[in-house]
Amino acid sequence: MASALQRRPSTRIFANKNYIVKLKSEFNFKTVEARRWISKTIEQERIYNIYHPAKKWFVILSDEGGIIANMMPILEPLHITCETANSDVLIDYLSSINEHYFSIAKQYDKRLDLGLSNFAIDNTGKIFYLDDDLYQWDDFTAFGASVSHLLLKLNQFDEDT
Question: CB 3.0-4.6 Å disulfide test: which of 57, 62, 70, 158 passes with 38?
């Protein structure tokens, strides 16, 4: 499953059949700073309410300092789901993604990365954001490009939809 996940080059991913762990090697703080960073991130993620509730942040201690990491259950990435889901299900998922996107934009003046690999579905069908980052608001520039890309990519839509 880890091979189906997209990632930054500086992020190391480890997974088994139940959990995924992401090591954020671009961050290497002193232990105290790492814990502060994690506390702030946990609080922000709680407020945003777009991340899986079982996602946990932690610090791995090394000789160089504290490496920030997180762990969460394995979810089905949306770009994989799109390969087999029918168009009605896809429309529901895209609607949920847009709700998340516009809620974050309106409330926090930030944007999500709308790439399908940044979203995943739990076993109840609920969508969660996987990217650990939110991005500066860009007046819908990325949104337009993302929607165009999605429409071209999703060959699930037929003439009856």
Answer: 57
How much is the pTM? 0.85
69-93 residue pLDDT tens: 999 999 999 999 988 888 888 889 9
Which of 77, 75, 73, 76 lies closest to 19 in space, CA to CA?
Answer: 73
| Assigned token pair, 126 | 């609920």
Over residues 30-71, the pLDDT tens digits come to 888 999 999 999 999 999 999 999 999 999 988 878 889 999
Task: Give dist(CA 110, CA 104) in Å, integer.
Answer: 6
98 closest CA partner among 130, 55, 50: 50
